[in-house]
């Protein structure tokens, strides 16, 4: 079975983007870390990043089908700024039914600008990890596995 790790807009810039907020770890490092975590937990990991909202929606739709087919455990997603803007992403996650989605943010969005305090994704998420830096991806994957194993 697989876990899908999705990253939204600007997360391809990790490592050099606002290091005070997001640290020095690159997206390639994060994805390698997720693959290692998957191996440890007994799951294959697919990683996908896009700056395009529609590409992420397509991935969520595909994930919904894979979940129904029994080949996907769930999704870990850092939606980037789409968190705060995308009703379409909210609808996509709701629209694919029971697909478990864990939302992760590297920074503590609640300690930042007020426009980052609201998330359209959270009401559709099975769990949320916020403010643990890139370690949050590991915590989100562990949380997903533990939650679904009961
Ligand atoms: C982020 C927080 C968002 O507010 C921001 O737009 C991002 C990254 C985070 O991981 O902390 O792109 O999702």
TrEMBL record:
Keyword Transmembrane helix on entry: yes
CDD domains (UniProt xref): DHQase_II
A single GO molecular function term of this UniProt record: 3-dehydroquinate dehydratase activity
Keyword NAD: no
Any matching Pfam family: DHquinase_II
The reaction(s) this protein catalyses: 3-dehydroquinate = 3-dehydroshikimate + H2O
Family designation: Belongs to the type-II 3-dehydroquinase family.
UniProt xrefs under HAMAP family: AroQ
Quaternary structure and partners: Homododecamer.
Its biological purpose: Catalyzes a trans-dehydration via an enolate intermediate.
Protein name, entry field: 3-dehydroquinate dehydratase
């Amino acid at each position: 079975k697989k876990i899908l790790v999705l990253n939204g807009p600007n997360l391809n810039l990790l490592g050099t983007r606002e290091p005070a907020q997001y640290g020095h770890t690159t997206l390639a490092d994060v994805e390698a870390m997720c693959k290692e975590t998957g191996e440890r937990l007994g799951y294959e990991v697919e990683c996908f990043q896009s700056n395009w909202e529609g590409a992420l929606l397509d991935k969520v739709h595909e994930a919904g089908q894979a979940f129904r087919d029994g080949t996907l455990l769930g999704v870990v997603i850092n939606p980037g700024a789409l968190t705060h803007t995308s009703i379409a992403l909210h609808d996509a996650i709701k629209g694919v039914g029971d697909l478990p989605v864990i939302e992760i943010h590297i920074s503590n969005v609640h300690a930042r600008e007020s426009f980052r305090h609201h998330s359209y994704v959270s009401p559709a998420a099975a769990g949320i990890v916020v403010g643990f830096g890139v370690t949050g991806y590991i915590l989100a994957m562990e949380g997903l596995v533990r939650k679904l194993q009961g």
